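Input record (one chain):
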Amino acid sequence: MKAIVSICRWLVGLLFIFSGLIKANDPQGLSYKMREFFEAWHTEFLSGLSLSSSIGMNILEVVAGVAIIIGWRSKFFSWVLLILITFFTFLTSYVLFSGKIAACGCFGDCVPLTPNQTFTKDVVLLVLILIIFFNYNKISSLFSAKISATIVAISFVFVGGMQWYALNHLPYKDCLPFKKGNNILEQMKPPVGSVSDSFAIFYTYKKNGQTIKINAEKFPDDFDSTYVQVGEEEKTLIRKGNSTPKILDFTLKTIDSSVNVTDQILNQQGKYMLIFVKEFPENPVAVESFINMPVLKKMSNEKMPYYIVTSDVEGVKGYALDNSHILKLDGTVLKTAARANPTYFMMQGATILDKAAAIDAERLLK
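The corresponding structure, as predicted from the sequence alone:
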């Protein structure tokens, strides 16, 4: 039994470490997913805790994984793992059976899983963790208490620092459709070889007092005027397609007249900069540090076109910026495009040549 427990703890520990690290690559993305759950549960008042919860969850996953592998405080961390996997199983079952959320984001954007896959994964993990939970006394520590505590502390600091960097700069590995090298217009098209959703259409008729539902492709041979249609046309999904573009609703509009200028912007010749701003600080005193004004001045001097793309229409009014340089974009799309606030995209046509957070924006002009 001790050998089985050892295998279980290594499997569980490594999977929790992997899960925590891959989400720590993009803690902002996980916080957005948490907000989806809060909205689905009508608990929007918790949205302000989404980012701190995201950071804490990623740290806890890695720390618990490390601790159970090295056998440090096995009773305590077996409880931690059991609580976590119970919570995760609840979330994945909600995603799978409610249909209100497309995916749980368990492994972030870099390892997308279907709701069925994530739920199955968590059920298997629950079984493995129950084995650990009821046999924690068979776990032997690999190191002394002092060394074990040091290893766990290092893992805590490492994951915390990793997330601090990702939030202030950009994710280490970009797994979004707006990653470097992608063409935005191409990403707005259905994938090559994809198929659309297939639906069956039904009509409801009455004949001789009986209600009959008829498939639009298989009308009865005796169909005539004695059939009287009742009710509306019904569509039933019979096969889920895969033709959804990776980028949806990317529509750039002018700030003053809301004219759609997406094609005009993305098809222009030469290099230009898109500066994505999710929201502006309420106090415009910090303009230069926030928007990195030296970079804007340098682009102006070099005659390089630039556009500030934002969904914060009211916030931008507090800044002395030329409206010809400001464009509107849907807030949900903008959050996908820009993890840091602001995020600079060096563009050529519709292709993203490079991207950086404002703090690193000067690198794009070298």
